[in-house]
Amino acid sequence: MMNSIRTYLLAGGAASLLFAGTALAQPTIYPAGAQAQPVAITGGTIHVGNGTVIERGALVFDGGKITYVGDAPSVPGNAVVVDATGKHIYPGFIAPNTNLGLVEIEAVRATVDDTEVGENNAHVRSLIAYNTDSKVINTLRSNGILLAQVTPQGGLVSGQSSVVQLDAWNWEDAAYKVDEGIHIHWPTVRFSRFGSSSATNTDAQKERVQTEIAKLEDFLGQAKAYAELGNVRISNARFEAFKPVFGGERQVYVHANRATDIIAAVSAFKRYGITPVLVGGAEAHLVASLLVDNNVPVIMQQAHALPYATDVDVYLPYKQAKILTDAGVLVAYGIEGFWQQRNLPFMAGTAAAYGLTKEQALATITSNTAKILGIDGYTGTLEVGKDANVIVSDGDALDMLGNDIQRAFIQGRDINLDDLHKQLFERYEFKYSLSDETER
Fold first, then answer.
1. How many Cα atoms sit within 13 Å of 160 on the Cβ side?
2. Residues in the chain with pLDDT < 50?
3. Residue 42 and residue 72 in contact, taking contact as beta carbons nearer than 8 Å
């Protein structure tokens, strides 16, 4: 590094050594401290998240909670004033169904901790494996995502997910709603995009599916009976995990895509008094009435994808949110995995381009998601009494060109929006500016 700086100075560069050292440094990103004084964001367009838009409004929060939303008020004398004139103010975006913090580099086994051994892991808690030091987390905050549902993968019953806030020292600090749901992957016949490989293979898969469904239903029956026993002398960890489900305190997320699988799953859970959340739902639009009748919400997968089959509308992934919303289904967007999560707001933006209003689209990554995850009592919209999970964007945050997050607050804490991508950009921008100066 010193040789580069010396070359730059000898070449007559105008920048000082101090500037060079600053540009080359890799800043430390650490969690923000608790909110110390009131903050007032004024002059911007406030998108409340419930369909309401306030032009040239003001948002005030103190002690991590929103205390005022509306027209410009008299700002407390000790408040930090953020001038958001010409900018947009949103609730922090929420990313459901992600293994964020459980995987860092997919090709390096030691950094992959999202799947437990075995088929039934109802007792497994993803939260305790969540890595707050993941470099991916900061890239999400830069695009406005402040909360995430950390979800286990694999098996028939994958385990328990938790909602975390994305600015924390450790998983205990990150916990926002602990062990809020259990994830089940409904057994299905696995076809390639171009159909099954053979009739024999299809028959074998159907037999496997029936066997797995029987196992799952047997487990649910035993778990319900266990829950009805009350206190037991010998505890069963898997059954204990389902006790809050039957008590209405824990959600069940069923991962299914085909219409026949969705029908079977909803019907099966209904027999045990469980109303699940559907995750995936590639063919959910074909059974929308069933979902509405049974109050089943849907966490759709990313819109920027090919259709699930070769004989359907090529634009269906873009339109599905509109179709389901019009039918009366509560929908939210999610993206499987972790590395694409930063694109979540653009999924909502695409839905707005294909039928939803901008505020309906915003709800698919804020208020709707909060309702589905059971955290709408304290986040998802910018309303008095809720957590101050707020982002300020210079442009339309649902648009790839407009998304420019300039400030972000989680529970009122002013969050560092630096990330590895920005650091690398600055590093190599500086490197090539040195080369240009040397050539001159």
1. 24
2. 1-25, 196-197
3. yes
* Model pTM above 0.70: yes
104: tokens are: 């860092």
H/E stretch holding 58? strand 53-62
pLDDT at 19: 38
Beta-bridge partners for 90: 391
Q: Report the pLDDT value the prediction gives residue 276, as an integer from 0 to 100.
A: 97
Buried b (16+ CB within 10 A) or exposed e, 113-122: bbbbeeebbb
- Give helix then strand counts, H and E, for the chain: 13, 16
- For residues 202 and 327, what is the distance between their CA atoms, to the nearest angstrom? 33
How many residues are given for the chain?
440
Which contiguous run of DSSP H or E holds residue 237?
helix 237-246
Domains of the chain (ranges; CATH) run: 2-27+420-439 (no CATH), 93-378 (3.20.20.140)
- Helix segments in 343-419, DSSP class H: 344-353, 358-363, 367-373
The CA-CA-CA angle for residues 354, 359, 360, to 5°, reads 55
Question: Which residues, listed in sequence order, are joined to residue 298 by a DSSP beta bridge?
Answer: 278, 331
Measure the CA–CA gap between 351 and 398, rounded to whole angstroms: 10
Buried b (16+ CB within 10 A) or exposed e, 414-432: bbbbbbeeebeebeeebee
8 A C-beta contact, residue 366 and residue 346:
no
Q: How far is CA 228 from the centre of its chain?
A: 34
Any long-range contacts for 6-12 (C-beta under 8 Å, 24+ apart)? 7/434, 7/438, 8/434, 8/437, 8/438, 11/437, 11/438, 11/440, 12/437, 12/440
The residue type at 359:
E
The single-letter code of the amino acid at 105 is I
Which three-class secondary structure state does DSSP give residue 340? coil
Cα-to-chain-centroid distance, residue 414: 20
| Cα–Cα distance for residue pair 274/276, rounded to 1 Å | 6
| Strand-by-strand arrangement of the 175-185 sheet | 93-98, 145-150, 157-165, 175-185, 251-256, 277-280, 298-300, 331-333
Residue 68 main-chain phi, psi, to 5 deg: -160, 140
Q: Please, where are the H alpha helices in 272-342?
A: 288-293, 316-327
Question: What does the alpha-carbon distance between residue 38 and residue 40 come to, in Å, rounded to a whole number?
Answer: 7
d(CA 435, CA 265): 61
Q: Residue 16's pLDDT is what?
A: 38
Is the CB of residue 313 less than 8 Å from the CB of residue 306? no
Structural tokens at position 196: 């099954």
pLDDT tens readout for residues 17-73: 333 344 444 556 789 999 999 999 999 999 999 999 999 999 999 999 999 999 977
| 3-state secondary structure at position 49 | coil
